[in-house]
Design brief:
- This protein is mainly alpha-helical.
- The protein has a single domain, classed as Four Helix Bundle (Hemerythrin (Met), subunit A) (Up-down Bundle), CATH 1.20.120.
- The chain is about 65% helix and about 0% strand.
- Helix 2 packs antiparallel against helix 6.
């Protein structure tokens, strides 16, 4: 068994403490404070932040894997926002697996069942492949996935009840 450096143990301790709230008052990202906003608004704004991060990375070219990963996450957060707003779902309903967000989008008539299936297949067939395969993601893949994430986000926020909470349009 390899010897672990003290630095590794210290870093793990700090991370555990940070997530356990032991490092003092948590400072949340602007607009994401759970004491000020409900879960639906937080999911929407997480999607906005993910899309904003994609924009920043795309300006610096070469971060295609990260853009793909964050674009998929933005689609899911956007669908979760809508489900939390339009139903009795809770955030806990979305903790297990990625399919739930796509399924709920179809069940709530946000997208058709065929579209939900295509999005789930896109996720299963390509997200993991872009992330784990021996080759790296390509610029065209990152661009297409980012465009899809923005289109989904715009589609949802064009008519969602709390669309005014979207930070993409500020």
């Amino acid at each position: 068994m390899p010897d672990e450096r003290d630095a590794l143990d210290d870093a793990i301790n700090r991370a555990e403490d940070a997530f356990g709230g032991q490092l003092g008052r948590l400072e949340y990202e602007e607009g994401l404070d759970p004491d000020e906003h409900d879960a639906d608004v937080i999911q929407l704004r997480k999607a906005c932040r993910l899309l904003d991060a994609c924009r920043l990375l795309r300006e610096h070219d070469g971060y295609h894997t990260s853009v793909i990963e964050m674009s998929f996450a933005a689609v899911e957060r956007t669908f979760e926002f809508y489900a939390l707003t339009a139903s009795n779902d809770t955030i806990d309903d979305f903790r297990e697996g990625h399919d739930r967000a796509y399924d709920r989008a179809a069940e709530l008539n946000l997208v058709t069942e065929a579209t939900a299936r295509r999005l789930k297949r896109l996720y299963r067939d390509n997200r993991a492949a872009a992330y784990y395969r021996d080759t790296v993601a390509a610029a065209g893949q990152a661009e297409a996935m980012f465009d899809l994430a923005v289109t989904v986000h715009d589609h949802v926020t064009d008519f969602a009840r709390l669309s005014h909470e979207c930070r993409c349009r500020d």
